[in-house]
Every structure is written in C-alpha cells, then in structure tokens.
Amino acid sequence: MSPSRRLTAEGIGSVLLAATVIGSGVMAERLAGGNTAIALLANTGATVAVLATLIALLGPVSGAHFNPAVSLVQALRGALPWGEAGAYALLQVLGCCLGAALAHAMFGLPLLQSSGRVRTGAAQWLAEAVATFGLLLVILGHRRGQDAPWMVAAWIGAAYWFTASTSFANPAITIARSLSDTFAGIRPVDVGAFIAAQLVGALLALCIARSLFALEPVSTGTLTQSDSQDDASSPLRT
C-alpha cells in the first residue's frame, strides 16, 4: 500500500472519528434534557459504532491507528518507520482538529472554539493512563485481524463508563476536544497532563505485551508481504 494512500486513510479516519465524538456529544446534550447519564450513553454508542466501522473499513489500508500513541508504539516496535509514524501523527492531529470544526459546522456552532470544561486531577490522569494502557494491550494482543474492530470499540465503550475521564485515550482526540466548548470538551490547559498520562499508559502496555504475548520487536526492513498485510489489517491502534 502506497504511503499516500495510508496517510489519506489516517487523515479521513481521524476527521470522521473526531466529528463523531464531538458531534454526537452535541446531539446527545441537546436531546438528553439535562440528564448527563443519557447524554454519555448516546455519546458512547455513536463512538463505539463509528470506531468499529472505521477500523474495519480503513484497517486494511493504513492499520487504522487514528491515534499518535498507537503510531508511537508501532514505531518503537519497528512495525512502522519513524518518518511515517511522524507523518501519521501529524495527519491524526490535523484530521481530528478538522473533525471538531466539521462537527461544529454541522450543528451551526462557531467553527473555532476553546473549551471551558475542566478535566484535571490525579484521578483523571490515572484514568487516562488506564484507558490507554488497555487500548494498546488490546491492539498488541489480539490474535486475528477481524477481531480488532469489535475488541477495540468494545474497550473504548466500556472505558467511557469505568474511567473518571470518560476515556479519551488518544492525544489527537484530546487536542481536538480542547477546541470544542461542548459536551466532549476539555480545557486547553488540561490537555498536556492528559497526553502525558496517555503516553505513560501506552508505553507500559508495550512493556507488558512483550512478555504477556511474547511480542517480538519487528524489523521494518525485513517485513514480508504477508507480514505487511497482517500489520495493515490489525490496528497496531478511539
């Protein structure tokens, strides 16, 4: 698969994922009548559905990362060249930010916003580390490519509810959500700590996965065609 096609897939997937997370939050809050639990349930359902769909659709093209933490871990494994990992991360962040603007446009909101929603404190940072740890453990440990869409989506759906942070688990999404003063938002000042916690969780997952699943480092220079296809169809990877 050509680099341009992989990067295009990552960009499009990131736009649609962020638009869903933020847009469904806007719709949910409008229709929930002040019931935060109902709003979060609707936000969760939309995110789970689109995540599973995008992974199944774009996984064979780019690996369906949509997440700089996933691309970083794959580069550390040797499964993704560092230059391409950097390009993935850039497209993921830009795509998610465009997705936030797209969601605003669809609901007639100002395109450029800054969130005022407070999300900070040790409990939320721990929650982000746990959410990202579990996400990467699923990505690195699943056995069959066809299981990735439902397993990743199921983890994120569950983590929406059992973590104090509602499971951002993605630096690109975190940045994009800081640009939306809506249900899914996060204050820009809180973003750095969330991303740091996410990266800690991702790196811990890589360490654990290496022993738990006998995960071996991958050399990008020696990948066979079959290996490359397996990597593409398994999100390496809301």
Number of domains: 1
Mean pLDDT: 92
Distance between the termini: 23 Å
Q: Just give the CATH class.
A: Mainly Alpha
Note the overall shape: globular
How large, in whole angstroms, is the Cα Rg? Answer: 17 Å
The tally of beta strands, per DSSP, is 0
Could you explain the architecture of this structure?
The chain is mainly α and 238 residues long. It has a single domain (3-233), classed as Glycerol uptake facilitator protein (Up-down Bundle). The protein is 70% helix and 0% strand. It is built from nine helices and no strands. Helix 1 (3-31) crosses helix 7 and helix 2 (36-62) packs antiparallel against helix 9 (225-233). The two termini are 23 Å apart.
Characteristics:
single chain; 238 residues; mainly alpha; Glycerol uptake facilitator protein; 9 helices; globular
Quick summary of this structure?
This protein has 238 residues and is mostly helical. The protein has a single domain (3-233), classed as Glycerol uptake facilitator protein (Up-down Bundle).
Give the helix/strand layout.
Blueprint: H1 3-31, H2 36-62, H3 68-77, H4 82-106, H5 122-141, H6 148-162, H7 171-177, H8 188-212, H9 225-233
Helix pairs in contact: 1-2, 1-4, 1-7, 2-6, 2-9, 3-4, 3-8, 4-7, 5-6, 5-8
